[in-house]
Design a protein that fits this description.
The complex is a heterodimer of chains A (about 625) and B (about 280). Chain A is mainly beta. Chain A is about 5% helix and about 35% strand. In chain A, strands 1-34-35-36-37 form a five-stranded mixed beta sheet, with no helix packed on it. Chain A has a four-stranded antiparallel beta sheet with strand order 2-40-39-38, with no helix packed on it. Chain A has a four-stranded antiparallel beta sheet with strand order 3-4-5-6, with no helix packed on it. In chain A, a hairpin with a 3-residue loop joins strand 34 (about 510) and strand 35 (about 515-520). Chain A is globular, with a radius of gyration of 22 Å. By secondary structure, chain B is an alpha/beta fold. Chain B is about 30% helix and about 20% strand. The longest helix of chain B has 23 residues, at about 240-265. The two termini of chain B are about 25 Å apart. Classes of the chains: A mainly beta (about 625), B alpha/beta (about 280). Chains A and B meet through strand 30 and strand 31 of A and helix 3, strand 5, helix 6 and strand 9 of B.
């Protein structure tokens, strides 16, 4: 890691406001999340359930919902994540240039705003898929902003003044950041993006007061880098929780390939205060050509449990060994206690890009359930519950097919049966609500690629509608690209699933009013009945929605808010002016454009926060 | 958009020079990396800069550059990036592989290959063919320090020959605005961090040009089943920008000797341009 620039060091000294001497920021955050008037962390709570106890808006009256106020962010491009609401103040972020606004809900006016100084020439060229930012974290009287240029900044929540900044990564190596941080105890957790550049992923914890690095756990490399303790840290193997031997990562790579091995950590992180464990997923291995990296490439594509104080690995489980499909494993991990096979477990639930919904015991890492949550998924027959490994169908393995064969009809497509948009969970129904993609892909080898002046034979990726029923898997010629699905993680069964014309790229929220809210790429905020999936309300916001719907209460009224602003991978054709309207541009943006072409007639760029409420 | 006379189009196949007329005020607008030797630099020292200057001169146009590091998203953010007035930021990318699918490509203007570059005086001076590396006694093989990129045919070759364990990993692209990959490799070869590298011809030419003559053994790599080392380089324009493509094709034909002289002057290995497979543009 490069030494931090002087101005960063200088800034870590002065804290402007006197903060109470709590060494335990989590009690602060935890308290805030217990009050449903707040939406104090990306997931609504540490468990990442995105469930709200508010019930003012319910299945009966949600049809009367209407926009209460709206706010333009002033930024085009993709708006992911969602607003935080803490003690009545609303905090909202933008994609690059990562402006933060604190908004007074009473007057709907800006209390303060902060735009970091970032060099666009350095940052934008290293961001793969639009310049998204997935939101803020709150704790210890501060707002934490993870800037695109990898600088992590703490702002005084009252004034917007910068308290400290720290350089989390090196953009020179292709590192960027898109994730929302998470405050745990006296630390702020953040990860890293840049898998396309071969960046080696890590999760890092910084001191909440000073920005000093507390620990850093890499996704791959020697045990001292991954913070795996051989003989103590475990994985799921041979049908049991098994201690890991030494060098469990490096032994699955050739030579020093792990040094540029990927496994980035750009998703969402959750925390169990009782177990004191932090949970998250790691992304795909680099290089993209699987032939060139023999082995399982551990611990890419894995679920992790780390000790919050030290970063030491409690357990790790690899979902997609030796990835050939770009099924990035970074999606969120939701922590719910539920009965599986007649026994109560503290579970962790994760819906992977690879199409499998996993339920594990979050204390031990025991694999409990692994079933596909969209039945068009065909790259595996099943997950072997004993080994924990997916049983790959040779026909859909690019490596098996070799370089003279197109690999067609692989489902899901590279953007996954579900991408980063987080699920919600309702304890009322016991179900998870999944914002899903419904696409398949083909790889055409023998296409000439060109990276920074070096030509080579690569593969071209095209995506197309799955054309099959998500519930049965039967081919039916349908053209919808998205599904919104209710899932029972205790049994691994789909309870209901609604078709969506486009991918659902918006995180949902479930409420005690029996309603689940999510956004669509055309720009609709939708409300459905949590039990049946019946659509109860929709409203078209100014642009496509790739943000997460959040809900909170102010002055006795329940509000629902969402960022619209098309972009991200799904909208990159629109966000970056990629689509020239003919099929030759299908494979730009990693194949996302062709499948999303008709989106352009529904929605245009522009960031807006729209806040909904029932009429007075 | 330039209008061609029928005569000009008919003359694409004849030998008399006839350069299409351009509208007054039109510029020759190039999308390029400001720090990408030997291809292009802001100081205009790259061979692509020289070829662009040659073309602009013949067209009687002024050159205008749009600079952006050439990494993922380069085409999207330059050639295909719309400006507020409904146009585009720039019109030509001076070097892309023939048949590249992110752009329409012109006729190729040179053909080159990857090269195994070995720094002399490091104990490898006896190597005269790449295949020797694969057949070294194990002990010698283990002392190899060869660069390995995160993609590309060189890595494929190392993999096929059981040499991945000897690879020193390098990123194919970085976020470094002060060094490009060729510069990094050149520095590390000099420092002895690596002794050898399988590098694309133009970059291999650049590395050699930074040192006294004969500092390196340069062995061209030969394509084999499953590994393609040779590529033709063309220019890239937007899909559907046919007039400009025609104009560039004419210029390439008329100046091929001059262009190849420029490329060769950078120490880049040049091979005969093979027949181009015709690309199906309807897939």
């Amino acid at each position: 890691m490069k030494p931090v620039k002087n101005w960063l060091l200088a800034s870590t000294i002065a804290t402007i406001i006197a903060t109470p001497a709590v060494s335990n920021a989590n009690s602060d955050v935890e308290k805030l999340t217990e009050n449903p008037a707040n939406w104090a962390t990306w997931g609504g709570d540490y468990a990442g359930t995105r469930y709200s106890k508010l019930s003012q808006i319910n299945t009966q009256n949600v049809k009367n919902l209407q926009p209460a106020w709206s706010f333009s962010t002033g930024v085009l491009r993709g708006h992911e994540g969602g607003p935080l609401v803490v003690n009545g103040v609303l905090y909202v972020h933008t994609p690059f240039p990562n402006t933060v606004y604190a908004i007074d809900q009473k007057t709907q006016s800006v209390i303060w705003e902060y735009t970091p100084t970032m060099d666009a020439d350095v940052t934008i060229p290293v961001m793969c898929c639009d310049t998204v930012n997935r939101g803020l974290a709150y704790g210890d009287g501060k707002i934490f902003l993870q800037q695109s240029d990898t600088v992590l900044t703490a702002l005084d929540a009252k004034t917007g003044k910068r308290v400290w900044s720290v350089q989390n990564g090196d953009p020179k190596l292709g590192m960027t950041n898109t994730n929302a941080p998470l405050v745990v105890k006296d630390k702020v957790l953040t990860g890293i993006s840049g898998g396309e550049f071969g960046v080696r992923g890590f999760l890092a914890a910084y001191d909440i007061k000073t920005g000093q690095l507390a620990w850093k756990g890499y996704s791959m490399g020697p045990d001292k880098d991954t913070l795996i303790k051989p003989g103590k840290s475990t994985t799921w193997q041979d049908g049991k929780v098994t201690p890991l031997g030494p060098d469990s990562s490096t032994s699955t790579w050739k030579g020093d390939q792990w040094k540029i091995g990927g496994g980035t950590t750009w998703g969402w992180y959750s925390y169990d205060p009782k177990l004191n464990l932090v949970y998250y997923g790691s992304g795909n291995p680099s290089t993209w050509n699987p032939v060139q990296r023999p082995g399982d490439n551990k611990w890419s594509m894995s679920l992790w449990a780390r000790d919050a104080d030290t970063g030491e690995v409690k357990w790790v489980y690899q979902m997609t060994p030796h990835d050939e499909w770009d099924y990035d494993g970074i999606n969120e991990t939701v922590l719910v206690d539920q009965e599986v096979k007649g026994k109560m477990h503290k579970t962790i639930v994760h819906f992977d890009r690879n199409g499998v919904g996993y339920t594990l015991d979050r204390e031990t890492g025991e694999l409990l359930v692994a079933e596909t949550f969209d039945k068009s998924v065909n790259w595996l027959t099943h997950v072997d519950m004993k080994t924990g490994r997916p049983q790959v169908v040779p026909e859909f393995s690019t490596e098996h097919n070799g370089e003279d064969v197109n690999t067609v009809g692989t489902c899901p497509a590279a953007l996954g049966a579900k991408n980063q948009q987080p699920v919600s969970y309702s304890p009322q129904t016991g179900l998870f609500y999944i914002s899903g993609n419904h696409l398949c892909m083909e790889y055409e080898p023998f296409e000439v690629s060109y990276t920074a002046g070096q030509p080579y034979v690569g593969a071209t990726l095209n995506m197309m509608p799955a054309g099959a029923d998500a519930i049965t898997g039967k081919k039916d010629g349908t053209t919808n690209l998205g599904q919104f699905t209710a899932w029972d993680a205790k049994t691994g069964k789909i309870v209901w699933s609604n078709k969506e014309q486009f991918s659902v790229w918006s995180g949902s929220v479930a409420t005690a009013g029996g309603v689940v809210f999510y956004g669509t790429l055309e720009g609709y905020l939708k409300a459905v009945d949590a039990k049946t999936g019946k659509e109860l309300y929709k409203f078209k916001t100014p642009s496509g929605i790739i943000g997460n719907v959040n809900t909170w209460e102010f002055n006795g009224k329940q509000y629902v808010g969402v960022l619209s602003g098309i972009g991200g991978w799904a909208g990159i054709g629109i966000a970056a002016g990629l689509d020239n309207g003919d099929s030759s541009s299908n494979t730009e943006g990693l194949g996302a454009v062709g499948a999303y072409r008709s989106l352009n007639s529904y929605t245009k760029l522009g960031g807006t926060l729209t806040v909904f409420a029932l009429p007075n | 958009m330039t209008q061609y006379s029928r005569a000009a189009i008919a003359c694409l196949l004849c030998t008399t020079a006839l350069i299409p007329k351009v509208q007054a005020g039109e510029k020759f607008r190039v999308c390029a990396d400001p720090l990408h030797p030997p291809y292009s630099t802001k100081e205009l020292t790259g061979y692509e800069n020289k070829i662009a200057a040659l073309f602009a001169r013949q067209l009687g146009q002024e050159i205008e550059y749009t600079w952006l590091p050439e990494r993922i998203g380069f085409i999207r953010n330059t050639l295909k990036a719309e400006t507020d007035d409904g146009g585009y930021k720039c019109d030509v990318v001076m070097g892309v592989p023939a048949g590249y699918d992110l752009t329409e490509t012109t006729k190729p203007y040179f053909h080159s290959t990857y090269v195994l570059l070995i720094a002399k005086g490091r104990g490898w001076d006896d190597i005269s063919a790449p295949s020797q590396l694969a057949n070294l006694p194990l002990q010698r093989q283990e002392s190899l320090k060869i660069a390995m990129f995160d993609r590309g045919p060189g890595t494929e070759w190392l993999q096929q020959n059981g040499l991945l364990d000897q690879g020193v990993p390098y990123q194919s692209m970085t976020g470094d605005s002060e060094h490009n990959v060729a510069m990094q490799i050149e520095q590390d070869l000099r420092k002895g961090i690596i002794d050898m590298v399988i590098l694309w011809g133009p970059m291999a030419g650049y590395v050699q040009a930074q040192s006294p003559k004969d500092s390196y053994i340069a062995l061209p790599m030969t394509s084999a089943p499953g590994i393609k080392f040779e590529f033709s380089i063309a220019m890239g324009v937007r899909q559907g920008d046919n007039d400009r493509k025609q104009q560039l094709n004419t210029l390439i034909e008329q100046n091929l000797t001059e262009i190849q002289k420029i490329v060769a002057s950078y120490g880049i290995p040049i091979l005969p341009i093979p027949e181009q497979p015709s690309r199906q543009d309807d897939d």
